[in-house]
């Protein structure tokens, strides 16, 4: 029976993908791991096939990009922002979607590795960090929208804690009586929601109002969430600091169904500053993560990782800024709310 790359991988104590890279002569593999694979190949008398040898002559300029979905405009903004820095470096991004499935995400990454891409960028990954750390031993891997993961993984994210603190401070400055943080439940370690919640708490603590903190984590049923919050705080004079624009839009829509005008009565502040936040029907105040700077940092990490694959992973944070819109303007709240209560009575 012919010796396979799986056999070589077991012998060398590495992954099959790494054996494939060594067979192709990929320069991204460290000298130490290359020696281990070569030794295992010699001991097992492994002979790569003609197709594998042909791949060794090719040097790819393709960068694989894996996204959870395209439904959230944040991911589209990231891809669009990557185009120019990729072009400047002679690279071409190729996009795959995981459909928010760890299995599909892993398959997409493996496919990119097997097709010989120069590097892989994963945005908001679904897989556990340990799985991605193993991948990073085989190919340059850069992760966006996650906190540090260790190993050889470079991570780039918005300064989430700082951004949420800025958003919360804005809500306090405008004068809302209560500020509530609304996030999504997320099973993946290193997701942004927990960091943004910390920023929210930082702002309340700095204002001496930490005893007013209220965090709501939701999967669905935003309408029910709003009712529970209004019942608990005993007022609609409040502002929601929301983990992202998509959830903020759901909240604005639910407020509209209740005849509540965002901003004048209930504040809503999102995160990501997607085009949806700026639409006339929403006008949501949002933290802009600085897509251009994020994309540039991602490609800097990719380039560095290609040339120096054995560097420890680095973490880069990009400073966001607040884009103010109507959803956090409450200058006439008292008059408007009183008028609404009178009409309802």
From TrEMBL:
It comes from the Bacteria. Keywords: DNA-binding, Transcription, Transcription regulation. SMART domains: HTH_LACI. One of its GO terms (molecular function) is transcription cis-regulatory region binding. SUPFAM superfamilies: lambda repressor-like DNA-binding domains (SSF47413), Periplasmic binding protein-like I (SSF53822). PROSITE patterns: HTH_LACI_2. Pfam families: LacI (PF00356), Peripla_BP_3 (PF13377). Residues 3-57 form the HTH lacI-type domain. This is LacI family DNA-binding transcriptional regulator. It comes from Nanchangia anserum.
């Amino acid at each position: 029976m012919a010796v396979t790359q799986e056999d070589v991988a077991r012998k060398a104590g590495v992954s099959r993908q790494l054996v494939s890279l060594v067979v192709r002569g990929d320069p991204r593999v460290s000298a130490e791991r290359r020696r281990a694979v070569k030794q295992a190949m010699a001991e097992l008398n492994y002979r790569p096939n003609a197709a594998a040898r042909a791949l060794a002559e090719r040097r790819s300029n393709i960068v694989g990009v894996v996204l959870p979905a395209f439904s959230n405009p944040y991911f589209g903004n990231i891809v669009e922002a990557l185009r120019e820095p990729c072009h400047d470096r002679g690279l071409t991004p190729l996009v795959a979607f995981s459909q928010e499935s760890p299995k599909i995400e892993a398959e997409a990454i493996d496919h990119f590795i097997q097709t010989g891409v120069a590097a892989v960028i994963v945005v908001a990954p679904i897989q556990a960090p340990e799985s991605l750390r193993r991948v990073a031993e085989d190919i340059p891997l850069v992760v966006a929208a996650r906190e540090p993961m260790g190993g050889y993984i470079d991570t780039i994210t918005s300064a989430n804690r700082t951004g949420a603190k800025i958003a919360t401070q804005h809500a306090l400055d405008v004068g809302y009586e209560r500020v509530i943080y609304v996030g999504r439940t997320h099973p993946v370690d290193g997701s942004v929601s927990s960091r943004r919640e910390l920023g929210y708490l930082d702002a309340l603590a700095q204002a001496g109002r930490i005893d007013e903190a209220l965090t709501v984590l939701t999967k669905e049923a935003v309408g029910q969430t709003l009712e529970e919050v209004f019942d608990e705080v005993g007022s609609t004079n409040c502002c929601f600091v929301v983990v992202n624009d998509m959830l903020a839009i759901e909240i604005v829509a639910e407020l509209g169904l209740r005849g509540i005008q965002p901003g004048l009565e209930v504040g809503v502040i999102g995160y990501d500053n997607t085009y949806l936040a700026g639409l006339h029907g929403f006008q949501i105040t949002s933290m802009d993560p600085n897509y251009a700077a994020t994309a540039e940092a991602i490609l800097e990490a990719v380039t560095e990782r290609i040339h120096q694959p054995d560097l420890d992973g680095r973490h880069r944070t990009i400073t966001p800024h607040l884009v103010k819109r109507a959803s956090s303007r409450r200058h006439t709240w008292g008059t408007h709310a009183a008028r609404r209560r009178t009409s309802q009575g």
